[in-house]
Amino acid sequence: GMHCGSWVNAASTLPQVSHVHVLGITSADIGLGHAWENHWRPLLGRRLTYWCMDVDVGWAGRMGMADAFRRFDHPEALVAAFAAEQAQAPQPTYLSIDKDVFAEEVARSNWDQGRFQLEHALMVIEALRTGGLVGSDITGEVSLPNYQSRFKRWLSSLDGQPDIGADDLPAWQQQHQQVNRELLAAMAAVPTAC
């Protein structure tokens, strides 16, 4: 199916893409228990780097992929390291923000919640200023799930999707709209790359 790992893998194979950085992962999706589910080619080919917190990624070193997994104790250290790397070698960037990277108080999601505060995302956007943006998107809007197939309902239960009450949804969506406005304003201030 189409999910974060599959589209990241597809993007990493495009000739115009030199590297894919995935920042803010806190889920076990990149841990040892899910290692077999990951696409290893971009990791081994040094075209993909996971910047994570709260995940034991020691297994990657034993498989020759230690450079593709960078683990941090808190978002500030992760963002600072990413910004420092971007300052050394700025490149034109396509930025995709999935709002499940944010902590629950920033933007509630239907999926795993990350630890980023809005300020962390704004710092990442600022770090991309020198190389400029070739494009961007924001995804991860919250909605009431309505899965028609029993299989999809089962899969979503494995992901630990929270129950969302219809009464809560408008407040959650308003929260998302405010985050979107702030992210879009920050991205609009970054020069367009040629």
Describe, in plain words, how this protein is organized in 3D.
There is one protein chain. Helices cover 37% and strands 15% of the residues. It contains seven helices and five strands; from the N terminus they run αβαβαβαβαβαα.
Please report the number of helical segments.
7
Poorly predicted regions are none
Number of strands: 5
> What is the residue-mean pLDDT, rounded to a whole number?
86
Shape: globular
H-E string: HEHEHEHEHEHH
Radius of gyration: 17 Å
The percent of residues in helical segments reads: 25-40%
Distance between the termini: 33 Å
Structural class: alpha/beta
In terms of DSSP E residues, the strand content is: 5-15%
Note the quaternary state here.
Answer: single chain
Task: Give the strand line-up of the largest sheet.
Answer: 1-2-3
- Describe the sheet with the most strands: 3 strands, parallel
- How many discrete structural domains? 2
What is the strand and helix layout of this fold?
Layout: H1 4-12, E1 20-25, H2 40-44, E2 48-53, H3 58-62, E3 69-72, H4 75-88, E4 93-98, H5 118-127, E5 133-139, H6 150-158, H7 169-188
Offer a quick outline of the entry.
The protein has helices at residues 4-12, 40-44, 58-62, 75-88, 118-127, 150-158, 169-188, and strands at residues 20-25, 48-53, 69-72, 93-98, 133-139. With 194 residues, it is α/β, with parallel strands linked by helices.
Could you name the key traits of this structure?
194 residues, alpha/beta, 7 helices, 5 strands, 15% strand
